[in-house]
Structure prediction request, 250 residues.
Amino acid sequence: MSPEGGAKPEGPAIRVMNLTMVYRSGGGELPVFSGLNFEVARGERLALVGESGAGKSTLLHLIGGLDRPTGGEIYFGQNDICKLSAAELAEFRNREVGFVWQIHSLLAEFSALENVMMPLLIRGDAKETAEPLALARLKEVGLHNRASHRAGELSGGEQQRVVLARALAGDPAVLLADEPTGSLDFRTGEMIMDLLDDLHRARGLTLIHVTHNLNFARRGDRVLRLERGQLEEGCGEAISPEPRKGPTYV
Prediction:
């Protein structure tokens, strides 16, 4: 959303400064990465690649405010989200960021429409307001005719489109996607990436997506490779496939 007066915000959408993450367990420490610095321009599509276990998902979680770093700063515009309280961080996630995961985490007994409405209802919107907004998002991903179907009755590709609609329900400026095609067959995965392409262009989204598919990575404006705790520009060498974490859908 533009600031008052209609002026466009200036500077990068996201700025990561000296970001460090160390997991502590049983008196020991497991460093994931240290001193990461990078920016994501407004409307940029950034692909994040790297070997399994390199810390890509961890980095995405930190950027989305789902976890807190050991050190460093993460700015959205002029606001360092690392300084937000838990309540402020939850509000930030609900209003500013959309999430798409490899495992869709839809509520199987709820309809597609109800699943998309959920983040709007959580933030306090009335059902009368949330329902038409959710239906509009389903139409945007080509699923308005399946709105009344329970999530458990939908195919894998349809479920992931519901996830996309849910991620866009609150009209976020930033979309974070972690292996969004990882549990889908190749053809369905291509369809989901085509849809991401369309949504990115139509909405002017700032999009960061983690992928092991180099063809998908090269669709973006820029590729960053996370390796040995550091970031490098470009795809680098071939990446080992990520072990599947869910069923393959046809």
Summary: Residues 186-203 form the longest helix (18 residues). The chain has a mean pLDDT of 88.
